TrEMBL record:
It comes from the Eukaryota. Residues 39-53 have a biased composition (Basic and acidic residues). Residues 1-73 are annotated as: Disordered. Residues 28-38 have a biased composition (Polar residues). This is Uncharacterized protein.
C-alpha cells in the first residue's frame, strides 16, 4: 500500500503528536475504501493505484459539505 507523499511535514508531525492519524490510516475509513475499491475494480480493472486514488476522492467529497462539493465540480 503506497501512501501519498507528505506535502506539509510540520502539520503531519503535529497531527501524529496529537494522536490523530491521517484519514487513510483510520480503520473506519479503510472499510469504506475497501468496499468502494471492490466496486471500482469490478468496473475498471486497471490496478489498485487508480482505484485507490478515486476512492480517496469519493471519501473526501462525501466527508465535505454539499457546498464544497458543488464548488469543486
Amino acid at each position: 500500500m503506497r501512501k501519498p507523499d507528505i506535502i506539509n511535514v510540520r502539520s503531519y508531525k503535529g497531527r501524529l503528536r496529537e494522536g490523530r492519524m491521517k484519514p487513510w490510516a483510520e480503520p473506519s475509513s479503510m472499510s469504506l475504501k475497501q468496499l468502494s475499491a471492490e466496486k471500482n475494480s469490478e468496473k475498471v480493472q486497471k490496478g489498485e493505484e487508480k482505484s485507490r486514488t478515486s476512492t480517496d476522492a469519493t471519501v473526501r467529497s462525501k466527508g465535505g459539505s454539499a457546498g464544497e462539493d458543488e464548488g469543486r465540480k
